[in-house]
Amino acid sequence: MPSPSKKTAKAAQNIERGKALKEQGSIDQAIEEFNNALQQAPKNLIALNQLAVLYAMQENWQEVVDYCYRIIALRPNNAAAHLRLAKALTKQNNLYGAVAAFQKAIELDANSVKAAEYKQYGDILTQLGTRNTQKTQADEAIAAYQKAVELKPDISASVYMKLGDTLQKQQRFEEAITYYNQVLQVKPDFGDRVYINLGSAKMKQGLLDEAIAYFQKAAEIKPDLVSAYRNLGSAYQKKGLLDNAITNYEKALQLKPDAGSLHRIMGDILTSQGRTLEANQHYQQAESIK
Known about the structure:
The protein contains 16 helices and no strands. The chain is mainly α.
């Protein structure tokens, strides 16, 4: 039976061969060498870490999870292992497990977590918050996104957009507007959605003229955007400019004739103007769409 020192030496040889094979792109053979190393030294952290990395390259997420747990059993305070575990659990759609692993990694070594990883953590929290409508998860998601943009101010404009959207859902409109404007700084041609969301935030603040300007900008960018005309109609309706509201609702209906709710809105406005016959036509349309 080989002595412990011989086993250690044999494991070291396997590890060196595994690293060389990994560099050559021979992933299966590298995995075999690292597993051979573990047969000699089951607690060898180098082999365990290399196997977690290699299985991630193969997108074999269950193996990644298993090896991360083995590493954590030996080194509970290994932030990198918790972070890798979080990513693998995300791939398995084990979102609650991923959240716990992200939280542990951040608790152990927040400086080791990169902007992209904070963004991924924020995405998971947002997804869970949408499912459960929990304010706590929304607040944590906001904090994660804010950390991502703090670490990498030139991060993708979509991160600023998600941050703005999450803040708007929490009715933190002024903060949301700040981040929507940041979207345009990072990517001036981001598209119509940022103007729709800016307009929505302004409208919820009661700033109707500013909201209208943003909705009009969205319609200029994408003339067939139903939500732009629907929102314009709503803003003009709130201002009491019913003819303008009708014009924009009609444009929305031209693009989406089966929008039952729009037909009902049109019916209500026309009724308020005494245009009963036209109103009834819209109510009938709404009923037929049901």
